[in-house]
Design a protein that fits this description.
By secondary structure, the chain is an alpha/beta fold. The chain is built from 19 helices and 24 strands. It is globular, with a radius of gyration of 25 Å.
């Protein structure tokens, strides 16, 4: 999704553009098709174009702009095609007000019509362009920048994080947010606003979290936050436990592999949240039902949660896709805990569902991004401790989500054995990672495929779904995850000697039935890769290839371990196909539309 940044340096002589460029480069994982910067040094300077940051930088030399403050943007289009004109910053007619915007405006057509009738001329086909024109309209009526901006905001219907600079009031950046993320950063030399913490983490870990509707004013003397009535309010500054190093690739070629390798730590650090989780569980004594709500990979983590909670705590548990949530919302009540799983804490489908759910039910958000919107809206929050994740495909945040969900379920069911077992997971994952070369070799044998199936049963069904999603989103190979018993009800027709089938076969009560399903695809000449326990002679003899896991990993904790070779497979197959695993086609890390 779009990302915005603003920065004002205390030193008037120092140019801000190189810093803004570095910050938007750090936002590129959100997905974008164009980039732009506006700075001020007596007048507003703008450089922007369609294209990836290195291409646009090569053409325009983005770091070479005068002025000690400015705003920047990476654009993922919601209204208006990718083009130079549609790239942000968007300007008023005279080029004296510059605006960057993340979000989308539902009523821009109506506002545009009104502004055109007033004589304003539009250059772009974006929704954003109404914002600088509206600010100019109100400034023409005699309002100062802050009041004109406030009046503009009152006219907008939609989601937004917006930052503005203006030639007449040329010592400040104004910003605000509604249903789109925005953080304030404070360092010794500069003040920042940013869509996401990783963009500014190289400069500061001191963050202020503005609430919706608050007005942020950055100038050389500091940060002010005003409430909706224009009164200054005190805001707490929090120290983010992330470091710049955590948000950088280091020696790794891609974020995805760095993040896969960080998974043992993600589990260990999330296990340290046990006391916080216990407090939440203690507070939820009367819960009769649970409903998980999530999208994509987070949905798969939720599905594991359903299997586990039903199995251990015997509490009826549903899982609903966030985009479908409104169709089941009527069945909620105060005895149902609604759990939102999200790495970003910003996904709009989940946010919309959370706003509905909290009307009737207690809500819990399990998120990775500190200070994200869901942490503001949910009654309870668990922060997974995976650190910043920049690869578009979720890996370590998924394993951290599972860790938090498993801890929650273990504490809810008072199952000490599970908690003990969870503490062994980091080492089980390390053992898998030590054998990642085996997966690299296997990837060469499977990258030819045009269609793949992943099969699992019970606790292993979500593993199959997640393995297939990882592969399809980054390698662009069609893959389906199936409950292995369901295959015979249709998709078995697609199995033949050209189709690899990956079977998730941990030891346990589902093993024999899954083996029957393996036989079914083997009879149709499928190419079988089994992910199974070390020493599983049966799987070895019936599969073309196997990847083996420590036999002590039970089927119940298998999602935390058996998923890892599938992430690696997706990664290496993607490299084999010549794609960038960090930036898959048409996808963005944070989906706020
Ligand atoms: C896939 C992936 C997505 C996200 C989904 C929800 O690798 O990352 O499927 O899981 O977009 O995002 P969050 O978890 O941020 O709500």
């Amino acid at each position: 999704m779009c990302g915005i940044v603003g920065c004002i340096l205390k030193d008037k002589e120092k140019p801000v553009a190189p810093i803004l460029l570095e910050c938007v480069e750090n936002l590129d994982y959100r997905g974008y098709d164009s980039v732009g910067i506006a700075t001020f040094d007596g007048s507003i300077h703008v450089k922007k174009d369609k294209g990836k940051i290195p291409e646009v930088d090569e053409k325009l030399n983005l770091a070479d702009m005068p002025g000690n403050f400015g705003i920047a943007h990476v654009r993922w289009p919601s209204t208006g095609v990718p083009s130079k004109i549609n790239a942000h910053p968007q300007l008023d007619q005279a080029g004296t007000i510059a605006v960057v915007h993340n979000g989308s405006l539902k009523n821009y057509d109506e506002l545009k019509g009104e502004l055109i009738a007033d004589g304003f001329k539009f250059k772009s086909t974006t929704d954003t362009e109404v914002i600088p024109h509206l600010i100019r309209k109100y400034m023409n009526e005699g309002f100062d920048l802050e009041h004109a901006f406030r009046k503009t905001i009152e006219r907008l219907d939609g989601s937004y994080a917006i930052a503005v600079i203006c030639e007449e009031e040329n010592n400040k950046i104004l910003a605000t947010r509604y249903q789109s993320p925005l953080k304030i950063g404070v360092s010794d030399d500069a003040y920042f606003i940013s869509s996401d913490i990783p963009a500014i983490i190289d400069y500061t870990r001191k963050i202020i979290l503005p609430a919706e509707g608050e007005m942020i004013i950055l100038d050389e003397s500091g940060v002010k936050v005003h409430d909706e009535n224009g009164n200054e309010i005190e805001k707490e500054t929090v120290l983010i436990p992330w470091t710049a190093q955590m948000a950088n690739k280091g020696e790794h070629p891609y974020f995805m592999i760095k993040e896969i390798l960080e998974q043992p730590d993600a589990v260990e650090f999330t296990l340290d949240e046990m006391d916080n989780i216990r407090k939440i569980v203690d507070d939820l004594d009367n819960i009769k039902n649970i409903c998980f709500v999530a999208c994509g990979t987070s949905y798969h983590a939720s599905l594991s949660g359903k299997y586990l909670i039903q199995h251990l705590a015997k509490i009826k548990t549903d899982v609903v896709l966030a985009s479908e949530f409104k169709y089941t919302a009527d069945t909620l009540d105060e005895d149902t805990l609604v759990i939102f799983i999200s790495q970003s804490g910003e996904t709009l489908d989940s946010m919309n569902a959370l706003r509905i759910a909290k009307e009737t039910s207690p809500t819990l958000a399990i998120v990775n991004n500190i200070g994200s919107s869901m942490t503001e809206e949910a009654k309870y929050t668990i922060i997974t401790q995976a650190g910043p994740e920049k690869g578009v495909a979720a890996t370590k945040t998924y394993i951290a989500q599972l860790t938090a969900i498993y801890l929650f379920a273990g504490l809810l069911a008072k199952d000490d054995d599970l908690i003990e077992e969870l503490h062994k997971v980091p080492n089980y994952i390390r053992e898998v990672l030590e054998k990642s070369e085996e997966i690299e070799v296997l990837s060469k044998r499977y990258s030819f495929a045009e269609d793949l199936f992943y099969l699992g049963r019970g606790f292993s069904y979500p593993i199959a779904l997640e393995g297939a999603l990882k592969l399809k989103e980054i390698s662009l190979i069609h893959a389906e995850g199936y409950a292995s018993g369901e295959l015979k009800h249709g998709p078995l027709a697609l199995i033949n000697h050209r189709v690899p089938v990956i079977v998730i076969l941990p030891p346990g009560s589902d093993y024999e039935e899954t083996m029957v399903n393996l036989e079914e695809v083997k009879a149709r000449k499928a190419i079988i890769l089994s992910i199974c326990a070390e020493g599983d002679g049966k799987a070895e003899c019936k599969s073309r290839d196997v990847f083996t896991i420590n036999p002590n990993v039970s089927e119940m904790v298998a999602p935390l371990v058996y998923t890892v070779p599938l992430q690696l497979l997706a990664y290496y197959v993607t490299l084999e196909k010549g794609h960038d695993p960090d930036k898959p086609e048409n996808l963005a890390k944070v989906i706020t539309v």
